[in-house]
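The protein record quoted in full:

***
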Amino acid sequence: MIRIMLSVAVLLFAQQAAADDINGVWKHADEPGWIEIQLERGSGTVERNDKFPERVGREILKDLATGGEAQTWSGLIYVEKMGEYKNADIILASPDRMKITVKVGFMSRTIEWQRVDEVPAAP
């Protein structure tokens, strides 16, 4: 009985720990694009982009590090229009919703991402 309770406790903790980080596959909320984030590498890579297929394989996020508060991270995101990396703040708004905010001067833009299990096959 103790083994069963211990096993259940470990599984619950592991699920909660997984829900509290940004590792995994994410789909852009408004565009047909998917990225995979690997915190151990400190980066995120474009896995599929139906609108701009030439961007697949690009490291879109780099230098990811934990932020000052729970469920926050900071790093650099590639800004296509500028052709360079800019500072980004990342917030895990819920276990399946992430917000990335990029600040350039006095302007900022926030992009929402939805966690998905995997990158779907291309049509």
User: Anything to note?
Assistant: The radius of gyration is 16 Å. Helices lie at 2-19. Strands lie at 24-28, 33-38, 43-49, 59-66, 72-79, 84-94, 97-104, 107-116.
